[in-house]
Structure formats: C-alpha cells, structure tokens
DNA sequence: TTGAAAGCGCTAACAT
DNA sequence: ATGTTAGCGCTTTCAA
C-alpha cells in the first residue's frame, strides 16, 4: 500500500537494456529507432505504466507550458461557463489545457491566480479583470512574448488585446425598445460594484437611449445589487414606491433572474422588462423575456483566436474586439404602460 | 520586441551577488537569512520581475504538483459549473489550482485528458466518467497514492470513491408526486446515451414509482434526446400522439429546458411536469416548475473533501457518497389530469 | 542506429 | 548566515 515511486524514463531504459535517450526517441518519435527496440520500449512502457513527466520535459525544453491560464469571476455563472467552453474548443486542437480559477471579482485573488499561472509558464493568459486590479505587472510578460487577453472588460495599466460585448450600443438598443413601446419611467437594475466596466457601459447606453428620447435622467430609478436575492429586493423596493417605473432594464443575467423572480412572486405582469444577456427559459416565461443577447462562446473563441495569433508571432497593435449583441424580442418589452393585470 | 529570456534564480543571485540557494531561501522562507540580504534579494526579484518556475521546483521536490485535475462533460452546463465551484472553494485553502477539461462525454477525449493530467502529476483526479470509458489504467495510480474520485457517476474497472446524487430515490419521489396528483400516464424524457448511469438510475426510480402505484410500465412513454432542441422535439411528438401522457418527468436539467420550452411554445399548460435537477427561473414559470433538486456545489465539495482526506493518508475502503436530492414542490406537478386551459 | 555527457531551473544535503 | 555539490526527469548535443 506504500506509495511506490512513479517509474521514470531511466526505469524503462533499464528494463529494456537501452539508454534513456533511446526511450525518449521512441516516445517523441524523434530520431531513428530500429523497429525491434521500438517494440521493446513500448512494451516496457506499457508494462511499467510509465507516463512521461510533462513538467520535467518542459523544464528541459524551456518553452512555455502547454496550458492556458483563465481567470474568471465565477465558475458557476453560465455566462462564463459558455465563455470557457468557447476558449477550450478553440485551443484544444493546439493541445492546450485549461488552467482555471475564479477571482470572485476580487483584485487580490485575481493577482494571486495570475501569479500562479505565470509561475507555471502558461502559454496564454486570459483574464476577466476585477475592479481595482492593476495589470502593469503583466506588461513585461507580454513584451516577453506571453499573449495576454482581457475578456469581458478592458484591463487597467497596460494596453493589450481585449474582447468585449457591444455593451453600450446593446443597452441603448434594449432601452430604446422599451421607450418605443411607450415607457418613460424605466428602472435600471445593475450589478455591483458601480465602477464595474460592463455596468458603466450599459448604464451609459441606458442614458443615451433616454437622451435620444428626451427623457430626463432620474437617478433614483437606478438601483444595484450583488446577487439574485439582492436584485429581487431592490426590484420590490423600486416597484413599491409611489411613482414606480413601468419598465425595468436588467444590467446582466443575474439581475435579470432577480427581476423576473420578483415580478413573478408579486404577480406584477404589467411591468415591462428587457435584460442584458440571455438566460435559459427566457422564452418560456410569461411574457417571454426580451433580451439583449450576448454571444459568450463567440467571446471565448475570439479571445482564444487572438491569443493564438499572438503566439504565432502576430506583432500588430493591440486590438479591442467588440462582439456584437443582438436584441431578441420575445414580448416582455412590449407590456402596456398603464393598467395592471392582463 | 524579441522574447527576452525569463530571469532565473541564478540571474537574481548574480544581480545581488549571492548564491542561488540564498535566493531560494528568501523566497521559500527556508533557513535563516540576514535581514540585509533579504532586502537586497527581494529588491532584485522585484526589479527583474523574477517569477520562480513552479515546474522546476516541483521536479526537484518530487511530490505531486499543486494542481487538481477535473474532467467534466461540459464546461457550459450550469450543473457542472456549480460542481466545479464547489471543488474550487474546497481546495483553494490548500493552494491547489484547477486543471479542467471537458470530455463531451466521449471516452477517448476523457482518456486523453486524464493521461494529460497524470503526466502533469496532479495531486488529485476528479472525473465524471463517460459511457464506455474504462478506468482500469487509473488503478495503479490510485495504489501509488493518487486520490481518484468519480463524480456524478461511478467509474468502471476500478473501485474508488464516488460521489453521486440519490438518483433513484429522487426520481421515484418526483414521479410519486405526479402519481399522487392523479397522473397515470407519465412520460419520461431522458438524455442519451441510454446506458448513461444517471439516466438508468432515474429511469429505475420512475419505474419503481409506477410499480408502487400498480401502474403498468409503458415503454412507449419513455423517450430520449441529446440536447434541448431534441427534447423539445420528442416532447412535441409525445404529446401529439392519440393517447398522450398527462404528465412528464424530465431526466435532467437540459431535458427540463426542452420540455418547458415546448410546453410554452405549444401552450400546453395542462401538462404536469417534474424535473430532475433544478433550473434557474423555475419559480418564475407558470406554473412554477417542481423539481427534484440536486446539490451540485455540495457534490463538488464532497468529492474534494474526500480526495483531500485521501491525500492526507486516509486508507479506508472506497466509499460511495450519496448526496441527497430534495423535492421542491412549486406547482407544475399538480396540474389537473383532465381538461385543458387553466 | 544508439549512447554519454551536459544542462534546463530549482532545492536537499551537506559543508563552511 | 551563506555557499557547494549533486541531482530531480527529461532532452539537447555531440560522439560513436
């Protein structure tokens, strides 16, 4: 039951009666090896259950490791899950494996993760930057040839490739949709912290839509929450005011869940809703939820493709890729302005 | 712009005018170092932007790498996202980082991923086994001290710790709920392939509930699909038959999405539904969706805890941990048996 | 076609 | 308090 030492190249070599280098040659299909020794080596490898130590190999070869470091806020958020899948699908052909960690949107945890990934000599670093994180320390690595891509939000302290959604335009389109259906008092339920890039951009889109329609901006209609429960609470508060909004705009998928849950709970079907980011079952709700859909997998693929191009020597200027959003009209944005019930 | 070589321990040592070992001592807070040299070393480290090579360190130290390998079917499935979060939360304190890959439920991809993880000398291996995968090759690693835990489904070809939901009992409880509300023709919409452990167990629970109520098993009421779209299609077909079921049981979260979407599309509100696994917005649907809720984060935590215990020397017999499900009654299971509309 | 020696970046074990 | 030597498991280089 004792933890017996894992077999090494040398063990296999000894077993067969050849040099370590010969075994190495067989395994890497490097130089020429006679068919006979090849057989023997392979047999010994199978028998001993030898598995080459990738770290040792990497040390010697010197290049970056065949891993890609990915820092996202939350593994359990479906948006980032889809992003991760897009990335994995794109890099798999290149033999890269995903090293992942969630930052919980905490700058310190993000820093610890990136440091760890750098120490592991990842081939690529893809980061969803937390509020307050500074990325100046990544600069030198980028100059040294490490592709760094910021995702969902631009980074701070260095200029590098970023992939973001068309947050402002998308939000503006979503809010305009509400306005087109007669709404003039539109609540904005955003996530926290308020300095979050996506929140600011989407709020800017909201304000632009109001401006476009000559609707004065009412600060009191903008509320915030950390999670779904929080969103439910602020939604309830907003609607219980003497002058409640007739429509709500959700700043992200989690806020959307909160709004929808609260409206269902309180049976306020007459409140119009448009959400930024799609959620599952949106079309099965009553009314079906109109959303400004993002393309999370495409965002992931795009980030990965950009990084791979850098890895292949692309030295062009840092780009910001904007992945377009799409207004998916399903009904919830067209609720009547006046009158309750259906 | 050329990729300048990353600085090494030796570079730092040369810069300060000390030996490599001294630098190592400072960084690992090993043996005694004078405050002065400490300062100097730290300064040089910062200036050169030195980041110790974790792989080199690991090679020398010989122990397993501080990574945990995780193979799941799909990164974008919220169930597995939550599982992953549970795992990460549990192992973070121990300084372990997640190495993840999705198998797409393909035995060959699963094998390639585990091989890669083993080659990286992960500290722990957690796998959601694909249908048709054989895990005999992991046996020797487990004996050699590598904690291997199967998650969501038991493995094949070796006995080791597994963490699963109470699939059979949960499904039985869910179907019994439908029967209690007068349903006798209950459709089962399951995922594929049919040999999938969770599907078989849940189907067994479905049959047990029928048996308990003396309802004959009608094979034609059991249908299958690969994804949400497929589930929508088979749901539609099932309900368009001359003798349609009055209730449906969803075999997993994806099937649930398909059923709910199809019922909403075709406005068949009178069909009762209970789903295995919870989905977001379940409570906002009309009727709200009754589910047999799993505890994905708990499953992840449980798997991680078990693995860590093994890492700490626990040599007791392999366990199968069953994480209980919970019937969450929300309404959709109580639809009337006869009569359409509300 | 094969092997011996050196070395990747780091640390364990022993000096000093 | 610091340095030296050797070696982790592998590959590169050069020689046979």
Most extensive contact? A-B, 62 and 62 residues
Q: Strand order of the main beta sheet of chain A, please?
A: 2-1-3-4-5-11
Biggest β-sheet strands, sense, barrel of chain A? 6 strands, parallel
Give the CATH H-level superfamily of the largest domain in chain A: Response regulator
Topology of chain A as a string of helices (H) and strands (E): HHHHEHEHEHEEHEHEHEHEEHEE
Shape of chain A: elongated
Number of helices of chain A: 12
Given helix and strand content, the structural type of chain A is alpha/beta
| Alpha-carbon Rg of chain A, integer | 26 Å
Give the fraction of residues assigned to helices of chain A: 40-55%
Q: What is the chains' assembly state?
A: homodimer
Number of separate strands of chain A: 12
- The CA-CA distance between the termini of chain A, in Å, is 70 Å
Beta-strand percentage range of chain A = 15-25%
CATH architecture classification name of the largest domain in chain A: 3-Layer(aba) Sandwich
Q: How many distinct folded domains of chain A?
A: 3
| Low-confidence blocks of residues of chain A | none
The first-level CATH class of the largest domain in chain A is given as: Alpha Beta
CATH topology assignment of the largest domain in chain A: Rossmann fold
Average pLDDT level of chain A: 94
């Amino acid at each position: 039951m004792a933890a017996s030492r894992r077999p090494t190249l040398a063990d296999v070599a000894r077993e067969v009666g050849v040099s370590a280098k010969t075994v190495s040659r067989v395994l890497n299909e490097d130089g020429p090896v006679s068919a006979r020794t090849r057989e023997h080596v392979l047999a010994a490898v199978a028998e001993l259950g030898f598995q080459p130590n990738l770290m040792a190999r990497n040390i010697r070869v010197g290049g970056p490791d065949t891993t890609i470091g990915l820092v996202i806020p939350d593994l359990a958020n479906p948006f980032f899950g889809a992003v991760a899948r897009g990335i994995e699908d794109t890099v798999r052909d290149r033999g890269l494996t995903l090293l992942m960690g969630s930052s919980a949107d905490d700058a310190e945890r993000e820093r610890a993760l990136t440091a760890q990934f750098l120490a592991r000599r990842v081939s690529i670093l893809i980061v969803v930057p937390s509020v307050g994180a500074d990325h100046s320390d990544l600069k030198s690595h980028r100059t040294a040839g490490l592709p760094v891509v910021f995702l969902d939000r631009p980074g701070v302290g260095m200029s590098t490739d970023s992939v973001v959604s068309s947050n402002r335009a998308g939000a503006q389109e979503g809010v305009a949709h509400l306005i087109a259906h007669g709404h003039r008092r539109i609540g904005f339920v955003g996530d926290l912290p308020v300095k979050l890039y996506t929140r600011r951009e989407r709020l800017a889109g909201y304000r632009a839509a109001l401006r476009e329609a000559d609707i004065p901006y009412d600060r009191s209609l903008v509320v915030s929450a950390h999670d779904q429960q929080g969103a439910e609470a602020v939604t309830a508060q907003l609607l219980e005011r003497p002058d409640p909004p007739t429509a709500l705009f959700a700043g992200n998928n989690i806020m959307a869940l909160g709004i929808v849950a609260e409206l269902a709970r309180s049976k306020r079907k007459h409140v119009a809703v448009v959400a930024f980011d799609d959620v599952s079952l949106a079309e099965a709700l009553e009314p079906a939820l109109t959303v400004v859909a993002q393309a999370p997998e495409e965002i992931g693929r795009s980030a990965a493709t950009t990084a791979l191009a850098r890895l292949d020597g692309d030295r062009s200027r840092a780009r910001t890729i904007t992945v377009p959003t799409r207004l998916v009209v399903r009904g919830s944005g067209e609720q009547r302005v006046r009158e309750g019930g259906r």
